UniProtKB/TrEMBL annotation, chains A, B, C:
Organism from which the protein derives: Pararobbsia silviterrae
Lineage summary: Bacteria, Pseudomonadati, Pseudomonadota, Betaproteobacteria, Burkholderiales
Name the UniProt record assigns to this protein: UDP-3-O-acylglucosamine N-acyltransferase
Encoding gene (name): lpxD
Entry GO terms, CC: membrane
UDP-3-O-[3-hydroxymyristoyl] glucosamine N-acyltransferase non-repeat region domain ranges (all copies): 22-95
Pathway connected to this protein: Bacterial outer membrane biogenesis; LPS lipid A biosynthesis
Amino acid sequence: MPFTLEQLTARFGGRIEGDPAREVGGLAPLDQAGPGHLAFLANPKYLPQVETTRAAAVLITEEALAELKGRGDALAERAFVVTPNPYAYFARVAQVFVAAAAPRVSAGIHPSASVDPSARVAETATIGPFVVVEAGAVIGEHVRIDAHVFIGRGTAIGEGSRIYPNVTIYHGCALEARVIVQSGAVIGSDGFGFAPDFTGEGDARTGEWVKIPQVGGVKIGADVEIGANTTIDRGAMADTVIEHDVKIDNLVQIAHNCRIGAYTVIAGCAGIAGSTTIGRHCMIGGAVGIAGHLKIGDFVIVTAKSGVSKSLPKAGMYTSAFPAVDHAEWNRSAALLRNIDKLRDRIKALEANIQSKGAPE
Amino acid sequence: MPFTLEQLTARFGGRIEGDPAREVGGLAPLDQAGPGHLAFLANPKYLPQVETTRAAAVLITEEALAELKGRGDALAERAFVVTPNPYAYFARVAQVFVAAAAPRVSAGIHPSASVDPSARVAETATIGPFVVVEAGAVIGEHVRIDAHVFIGRGTAIGEGSRIYPNVTIYHGCALEARVIVQSGAVIGSDGFGFAPDFTGEGDARTGEWVKIPQVGGVKIGADVEIGANTTIDRGAMADTVIEHDVKIDNLVQIAHNCRIGAYTVIAGCAGIAGSTTIGRHCMIGGAVGIAGHLKIGDFVIVTAKSGVSKSLPKAGMYTSAFPAVDHAEWNRSAALLRNIDKLRDRIKALEANIQSKGAPE
Amino acid sequence: MPFTLEQLTARFGGRIEGDPAREVGGLAPLDQAGPGHLAFLANPKYLPQVETTRAAAVLITEEALAELKGRGDALAERAFVVTPNPYAYFARVAQVFVAAAAPRVSAGIHPSASVDPSARVAETATIGPFVVVEAGAVIGEHVRIDAHVFIGRGTAIGEGSRIYPNVTIYHGCALEARVIVQSGAVIGSDGFGFAPDFTGEGDARTGEWVKIPQVGGVKIGADVEIGANTTIDRGAMADTVIEHDVKIDNLVQIAHNCRIGAYTVIAGCAGIAGSTTIGRHCMIGGAVGIAGHLKIGDFVIVTAKSGVSKSLPKAGMYTSAFPAVDHAEWNRSAALLRNIDKLRDRIKALEANIQSKGAPE
């Protein structure tokens, strides 16, 4: 299914520079593109590749195109689609090509699936083999639920959502439209809540951790993506909330009663402890840990591997991680850090000594 | 199923102050409670809410009630259940309300489940759709095993345990009574053990990592809870052991031949390397890493994000994590830390200089 | 199935010292071995255990045996198999004993499995209950796929591989021979790729994260092992590649377009961000984080909990983690570190003061 550039801009916008009848039948990076490909220039440092690419057409910004022309490059053979955001344009076109290339999946419920009679499954939804849909669940239009997924009682999956194999969504959760959940993710597991009930000290300590029933749910807004093996706990009393357009990577832990603001992205291996609120448009780096009961404002960036133990109400970038260096060198610095109070004391002694000698003559 | 306060105290203990016939039919926080609710005061800072709550009754300590009375508050309309631990009391009552509200699940084996004829499944157990129970496994009384769970050959699940959907428990493991395993958890996977068998240096290095068969099992004591997508490896020769009343959060890794002492809690994203022993009543914070072959004593607290590389035999609180601060400020401190030896040298030079000038006159 | 030492050395090499007809029927550590056991001495510090062990025979190096003899120990009753690498020898023998003890599993497809007619499954392969194998997948000779595994369309599983229960392998992936995948692992999930398409600042910011379709696959070389609940994302355009003989522990995240070099081992809870290349024979410690688009050379060791934010082209050991110490002590050092620029300024002031006083007389 090739597109002419004219068809492309009719659908996705942008201005054509070159032959509008030129066809593109696939996408590729500038340096790997062949004659039928659409390529894109997102980073100015690859400008020279535009001159040498074999791509049929290149997605480009006005500014980059002007610079190319300023260089006096012979662009006669080239065709361009000019757009303020070539990378996003590329992504949207790629989605269409990929969807067209994917095998057709027929709507309907696989005969091996176990769907409770009281669940409502839209006719356009696709339910894969060995899926379990419990009582009262609601599966929206064009939802696709892959093999081995578990949907608990009363849980709602919004239209156009895609749930990959082996995902578990407990009872009483609600996903809005177009949510994507990668394999192995768990949504709605019990939050980690126990009331300590112990008496006595030391070896005489007896008692138990009394489980607090977790009766809140998980609410997930439209256009959220959740990565493989990520876990999102249900709330204790109120819900855990993931607002719309949040993107969460793999192996992320989101504890009970968190609220993650719209458009925020959370990279892999991060963990957010209970009842913490994160604002909108935040970027949480890989393996970041955020303690419980904090408030993170809008537009906060936390760099990878950092730990957050206090609220960060103000927009900005925050860090507490060191980059790895030579092991022996690190150990020397670490030993000095452990004794940094001794350095401070030596400075103090020097200051006292100097002062006792009076001001310099 | 409302309770009168009299019925409540008959079952859970505590002393009634107010009308023993007053009924409670649900639980809620002080500030959200309605007239039929039981609320609780666990934290003295919420004492003012007790004066304004609409709750039918409040769980409270003797001390807090005395303080309320000391304030001269008009408590005539109030009813209290006085208990030394209102939060634990609340949790126990909540468990009963939640269990009563949950849909009845009939005992028995779902027709789609694959249960080996040599497995022993108690008549009161519930086995969900597509569950696999292998040869020789033993499923105790009132156990509930949800959809898509795998129970390997010879594994025993103790009475009253609850295994949520998509859990995998390998062969040769044993869970005692009332263990809860959240979805996606894996128990009994092979430990990470390989014998290096290489010769030669640099590019000439050849050989292989020879897998050490992992023939130990996993033993899990009574009343343990294991979080979603947590992994507990089987032992190499001896067993990996989780003692009773241990609570483990989501995405925690427990390597082969660890032993975790009773009542210890481990927060999300923590990782414990092989053959490490953790004592009783410890609290391991989120994203903590503990190296292998260490001994952690009883009553040890490791704060979130810390790394433990030496044994910690003594009770106490241990830390190695920094809180995130402004990125530019952090980078300045980090650069100075990397060159802290130069600061030390400058101090040394100053000391030498001062000394060569003799003691102050 | 006991072996005589003669049979053992015929199969696994090594030199017998003692009675070649002596039989061993199992393996055990030196201090737990009984009369029918083969034990091994890998660490010289356990040499005294060789003198007291009840094992029928001991795997030992020439050097250790010479030392024993030098001690004048009466070794007449002992039998030894002398080998340069007793631990690897032990592992290889253990594999045979364990395989022999494992219950026979018949080849074939479990009647409950859902295998697309266009998939090719070798006659010697074993497909467990509720397994899904999609169209065009290829399952090699002697592969064993356990319950609830999902194999996406067109994915190839190489001969002798073992896929444990509840593993998900998406479409378009390829595993070579003898790959082991522990339960809950996810291979081929979408990489975390989104093109930002936003305009406006602050509260006025609008737009969306446009998903970049992930059309690369995952290629996994022979003899790789992948731990429980580990995730390996598919590439965006090109493939994510795990070279042969790589060993990956539990709960590890490997992002899209990474390449992990042969023989590298990655411990639990580590995370590697997108497009990073790791060389051969590296050792990545537990909970290490490595940023994206980096190049890590061959023979690099990164110690546990470290964060890598720059390429490490040279072999060596790298670190950025502190060991946990007493909490109050840590907080004092951390406060001084946060103000280390003030210490630096005080040193500067002292230096200026000294200098203004002239050189020492």
